[in-house]
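agent: user wants the full assembly modeled, not chains individually. Plan: 1) parse entity lines 2) check alphabet per entity 3) run joint structure prediction 4) return tokens. Steps 1-2 passed, three entities, 1029 residues total. Proceeding.
--- entities ---
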Amino acid sequence: MATLRQLAELIEGRIQGNADTEILRVMPIDQARVGDITFVSNPKYLPLLKSCQASAVIVAPGVEAPDSNLLISTNPYLAFAKILTFLQAASPSGKGVMAGALVADSAEVHPSATVCPGACLGERVRVGADTIIHSGTVLYDDVVVGRDCLLHAQSVVREGCRLGNRVILQPSAVIGSDGFGFAPDGERYYKIPQVGIVVLEDDVEIGACSCVDRAALGETRIGRGTKLDNLVQIGHNVVVGEDCIIVAQGGIAGSSKIGKHCTFGGQAAIAGHLKVGDNVMIGGRGGATGDVASNQVLSGLPLMPHKQWLRATMTIPKLPEMRKEMQQLKKRLDELEALMKEN
Amino acid sequence: MATLRQLAELIEGRIQGNADTEILRVMPIDQARVGDITFVSNPKYLPLLKSCQASAVIVAPGVEAPDSNLLISTNPYLAFAKILTFLQAASPSGKGVMAGALVADSAEVHPSATVCPGACLGERVRVGADTIIHSGTVLYDDVVVGRDCLLHAQSVVREGCRLGNRVILQPSAVIGSDGFGFAPDGERYYKIPQVGIVVLEDDVEIGACSCVDRAALGETRIGRGTKLDNLVQIGHNVVVGEDCIIVAQGGIAGSSKIGKHCTFGGQAAIAGHLKVGDNVMIGGRGGATGDVASNQVLSGLPLMPHKQWLRATMTIPKLPEMRKEMQQLKKRLDELEALMKEN
Amino acid sequence: MATLRQLAELIEGRIQGNADTEILRVMPIDQARVGDITFVSNPKYLPLLKSCQASAVIVAPGVEAPDSNLLISTNPYLAFAKILTFLQAASPSGKGVMAGALVADSAEVHPSATVCPGACLGERVRVGADTIIHSGTVLYDDVVVGRDCLLHAQSVVREGCRLGNRVILQPSAVIGSDGFGFAPDGERYYKIPQVGIVVLEDDVEIGACSCVDRAALGETRIGRGTKLDNLVQIGHNVVVGEDCIIVAQGGIAGSSKIGKHCTFGGQAAIAGHLKVGDNVMIGGRGGATGDVASNQVLSGLPLMPHKQWLRATMTIPKLPEMRKEMQQLKKRLDELEALMKEN
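--- prediction returned ---
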């Protein structure tokens, strides 16, 4: 619970109305009741304010709603997220290594960390302060995990990989699986040992069942603040810059280097050994087959400017008709030419 | 083992031949021997009946096979499935909480349920009658699982999510991972806590390594009888109706609402915040980028009627040739126009 | 550590320089220092040899580098892989069933095998010599695992499935999940029991979070030496031949039969009930919707020869322009025809 005044301080916002209003929960505008705070970031929902029973509403500057308690923020969506975090935060009282956890003698777990029953930690693993490791998680030998991390059930971090601070692994995320490297030996394939590691920098989040392969030699690296959705594939020796967003079922093939602040839509793919610049947005199911310069919004396979792709894909259903028309044009032209010859 | 008479009662079918024939197994028509029952649902396989050694054959009405014991059903494929289930059914003698299972004191497990070694159940978890929870499965605090469920190894159900009756989770299915929600804060991203849950209604099946994200607020819901194949992604706040089929590697982005009795082919995708009606079929790798009305068979990206898509994609390999032809037409037209001017 | 002489014997190569040079590690050409061996398989990197500090370099015959110790091989990339394997190989001293592993009494584990803490082995499981089973892995009843296998954390092998020798499962690989089979019963779906198994032949590798479904009846089979990358889906009753490569996020739908020595790129898909011949290469995101004859390089959906696909996809961005041009041609033709009529 918090007063509106406390929340205004938290988000550095301004109050219009009663600052002593007590807030228990954050709720969507159509479900909010007394004790709830809600938010309007999209102006089209402003008319809903009239019938809304929320005790307070987070809005952008300039909104008129004389009957409501308003919490005014220049970024209402971010303010909503921060308030939600504040009201949710259970102090994660470190429980240490719980009964049923399997921890090697040489592992070092910070006393304020929590290792749940059924988690397995290998030799020389190090776990930082306030980190929580859920049941069923497996950390191989020599893994290093920073502080304030959250490793969900069944996540795996293989030997020698390193996680920064505030890293989140969703359930069944796999960090450090072998890169997919084989040397042809006649018709057969000889496995190339993958002896590198994976480094996840601070504030990285990896989605459920997403896989980040270890490097063949050297390291695969995911930059600070980058977020991977579920079922994403990152090949060996890939480097992803800071503050990137990779949506579900996307993939980056081996050795490609991605700049910072890129966003790749669902099922989008980057072929191997490519360079992608900064601030590149690739639409859902887009596919990069060559290098990509910075500051572009692209879609399609091959990639093209997003607006061009929208036009091009609208033409595809008309292709059979276009083909027929072209044959008609040809026929008419044949006839005209014949007629000209006659004359 | 069962007699043909028992099986006929089970499927409400009719026997032509010896009702006392004993049946041990169900086998495909080309491998069936004495003691086996087989089935023919596709008429093109009827000629195989002559050489088939099965003790009995499930067929549709109207099939002539005077030398075989026939079990006649209006739906032979369904009859086959029911007989296979009947002959397979091992009475799942509830073993309770087995040694090596890690179950919180406040969890309530029905005495007829089975919790295998290495499974982890959190605080206040409830597990219904005859449910089987395999090794390595993790149920977070406050999870509710109905009766007759089957949760395979390494599946994860996160805090507060609810499973109905007869729900099946294949290995490594993830229920209740965080939705992919971040509020931009300059170039960085601030994580929006995902405080909702997932509800899987009765008779839902979730494939191996498929992920159903918990809602940001409220719930993500999969309707009664819906089946997800492997490696499927369901975003936060999605609602899928009853009796849908989502084939492997498909994905539904956040907040989309799907009607009932829809079928989405492999790798098909639905963008976020869309509405899809009832009885919609989308072909493999189709992609919905806008709302979809009920009762349609669609394919492609953008979606178009499936038959139109078949024609359009057949044109794609001919595009370079079409382009060349068009340039030739243009040239011929230029020449004709010049000729006309001269005259 | 090894001398250059030992490494030359290992790869059956030839030395030019000092055979007693001591080698500790394999490193990429731009990071190699004294004590390292590096390799040049791509001639464009040969100029880097001059400034390289490596103690020796693996090269193809014909390379001139008088100041370097050369290890000459007709297949430098394969030689590199073999040397890396040799230098990495830690003798995997079998640790038997370790404390914290949960192994059924009827399971038979070879004394030279290793079963790590937290691994679960069901009834009658058999594990061969020198096989390593990592923490959190679950083998259901009646699973058979050969010798020299490596089963990583959280991998699952369901009941009755069989793994040959030298099989590798990356973390969270799922072998033997139920095939996706349902019989329509009105609007509802009735689950068809999946009572077959999966067979992984010798030298198969399965990537992280990849799924190989058990057969409905009979078996799903992955041929000797075939390698699956991460997040790959193999449907029930599929047969994949020997020495195939299936790159990440690809999928093969139920009952399709793939020949030997095929390579499928990332996100490529094969529809169900198809036959694909030997030595077929399908490019990234290609999709087979019909049978495919042997010895072809194909791409696209529908599949076409790869070179044709490259040309066709280059035309797609130009479609709106083509359409406009065609309308202009039509207009010009209309005018010409009108003009002809007048004359």
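agent: reporting back. The mean pLDDT of chain A is 94. The first strand of chain A starts at residue 2 and ends at 3.
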